[in-house]
Specification:
By secondary structure, this protein is α/β, with parallel strands linked by helices. It has two domains: 203 residues, Rossmann fold; 94 residues, no CATH class. The chain is built from 13 helices and 13 strands. A seven-stranded mixed sheet has the order 1-13-2-3-12-11-10, with helices on one face. The radius of gyration is 47 Å and the shape is rod-shaped. About 1% of the residues have low confidence.
Length: 401
């Protein structure tokens, strides 16, 4: 099979596989669009990057924490100037994580129904509303000309003193005692006086801020309502550093570009196209390594003998009409080979040829010597060059050490 034919077949096969992969990927049922998580890494309408960027411009250091909250180390001295923010975690907080979070000697900012486990340990529950029926909120005193935000969840206080959660590992019960705050400030409420954002101040100065609806932190809400002034006022200028939980949004500290690329190829139709193209390339490489058709005999290549080199040189010089040069070069080469040092003697060629007479003992050698001597005295022709080559070879066989 010719290379062009093989290339055409491979290109056609790749095209067919690509079309099939795209068709299968488009036929796969797609999940309903969901609101993006409230991650400070996301710049889309549902992300919370605007909150982090605005807080940074106001002088608040924003640290994105991508490890479990149990590994967060906060010094007691810096607890009043730092706040840990958990904004609508994509993975709900478990009872064990809530107890670990509440035990930190630092102020907290908790938002969203997926953080409700921690809310219950603080004396509140999150009550959600219908998607098409958000509640209007009262405008804040320092709000701008933008409209007040609408919310889909409110806070409801409960009177339990102890919360028991059996959703721990292996059904183990997790207990938490509900502390009683020294002061409760309602930062935002609905027009029907339902609290949405409350600030709990405990003896010793610790503060925990609860936000029922984490949509107050999303980029869309901050741009279209007065929620920006509200949520930024929760951290600035009260705190010097905000530690934002990104672990519950799926961000891990040990990720890599290669791992992200492999994960993308596993879930995307175009990723399957890449894998199929790679498989076809491997098959093409394997197929190209197999020889088809009868075995062809290899061309035997051997090196030229010294005589063949001499004849080739003689032929080239004859074609250039350098017959006398060819004869002299061959005689000089013979003189160099016969010398003991490998270098030509300073004597003239005619004189050197005359000195070879006593050393030649056979009639064939003397005939070759006479022909060379005659060629140095008369202009040689093309036939003389070939005769000189044979004579040089004969003398070499006779006189070589």
């Amino acid at each position: 099979m010719r290379p062009r034919t093989e290339l055409g077949l491979a290109a056609g096969l790749l095209l067919v596989l690509g079309v099939i992969a795209v068709v299968l990927g488009s036929r796969r049922p797609r999940a309903a669009p969901r609101d993006s998580p409230r991650s400070t890494y996301l710049t889309g309408p549902g992300g919370a990057s605007a909150f982090a960027e605005a807080a940074s411009r106001l002088g608040v250091e924003v640290e994105r924490f991508r490890k479990p909250m149990a590994t967060l180390a906060v010094s007691d001295s810096g607890g009043r100037s730092d706040v840990v923010a958990v904004l609508g975690p994509s993975v709900p907080i478990t009872a064990v994580e809530a107890r670990s979070l509440l035990s930190l000697p630092v102020d907290l900012l908790l938002a969203g129904r997926t953080a409700a486990t921690a809310f219950r340990c603080l004396g509140y529950q999150v009550s959600g509303r219908e998607w098409d029926n958000p509640a209007a909120t009262r405008p804040t005193a320092d709000g701008e000309d933008l409209p007040a935000p609408r919310v889909w969840a409110v806070l409801l206080p409960h009177q339990a003193n102890r919360i028991v959660d059996s959703a721990g590992s292996e059904g183990r019960q997790v207990h938490c005692d509900v502390p009683r705050p020294a002061r409760v400030d309602t930062v935002l409420r609905t027009v029907r006086e339902k609290p949405v954002v409350v600030r709990l101040t405990y003896p010793g100065g610790r503060t925990v801020t609860l936000v029922a609806d984490d949509r107050l932190f999303q980029n869309r809400t901050l741009r279209s309502s007065s929620a920006g002034t509200l949520v930024l006022g929760l951290v600035a200028p009260r705190y010097r550093r905000v530690v934002v939980d990104e672990f519950h949004h799926g961000y891990r500290g040990g990720g890599s570009l290669a791992g992200a690329a492999l994960a993308w190829t596993a879930r995307s139709p175009w990723g399957w196209v890449v894998w199929q193209l790679a498989a076809v390339g491997v098959v093409a490489l394997v197929a190209s390594g197999v020889r088809f058709g009868p075995v062809r005999s290899a061309i035997q290549r051997r090196r030229r003998s010294p005589m063949e080199h001499v004849r080739a040189l003689a032929t080239a010089l004859a074609a250039a009409r350098g017959h006398d040069v060819a004869v002299r070069l061959m005689i000089q080469g013979l003189r160099r080979r016969l010398s003991r040092t490998g270098r030509p003697t300073p004597a003239d060629l005619d004189t050197w040829l005359e000195r070879l007479g006593p050393s030649v003992r056979t009639a064939r050698g003397r005939e070759a010597l006479e022909s060379l001597t005659g060629m140095t005295r008369t202009p040689p022709d093309a036939d003389s060059v070939l005769v000189a080559a044979n004579a040089v070879e004969t003398l070499w066989e006779e006189l070589k050490p």
